[in-house]
Amino acid sequence: MTNEEIIETINNFLVEEFEVEREDIEPEAVLKDTLELDSLDYIDLVVEIESNFNFKVKTEDFVGIKTFQDFYDYIINKVNAGVVQ
């Protein structure tokens, strides 16, 4: 899966599951604010990541994720590292 395909997959499930407008998804936009995430939404986000990319997400992994670019980089790095737990 290329980086572009990973980002497209991410954007697709964000639009579908979190009802965010595609044009609001900008690399430097703040993920939490743009998606209006609460604690239950984070659980949904983890489920989406795990089901789409086949790796386990740890709570502490989200500590450094602020922007969409941080989110993309996190998933791309995990997918490219072949992390399957």
Automatic annotation (TrEMBL):
4'-phosphopantetheine is transferred from CoA to a specific serine of apo-ACP by AcpS. This modification is essential for activity because fatty acids are bound in thioester linkage to the sulfhydryl of the prosthetic group. Gene3D superfamilies: ACP-like (1.10.1200.10). It comes from the Bacteria. The modification O-(pantetheine 4'-phosphoryl)serine is found at S39. GO terms for biological process: lipid A biosynthetic process. SUPFAM superfamilies: ACP-like. InterPro entries: ACP, ACP-like_sf, PP-bd_ACP. One of its GO terms (cellular component) is membrane. Keywords: Cytoplasm, Fatty acid biosynthesis, Fatty acid metabolism, Lipid biosynthesis, Lipid metabolism, Phosphopantetheine, Phosphoprotein. Transmembrane segments: none annotated. Its main location: cytoplasm. GO terms for molecular function: acyl binding; acyl carrier activity. Residues 1-79 form the Carrier domain. Pathway: Lipid metabolism; fatty acid biosynthesis. It holds the Pfam family PP-binding. It is found in: Cytoplasm. PANTHER family: ACYL CARRIER PROTEIN, CARRIER DOMAIN-CONTAINING PROTEIN. Carrier of the growing fatty acid chain in fatty acid biosynthesis. Belongs to the acyl carrier protein (ACP) family. This is Acyl carrier protein. It comes from Flammeovirga aprica JL-4.
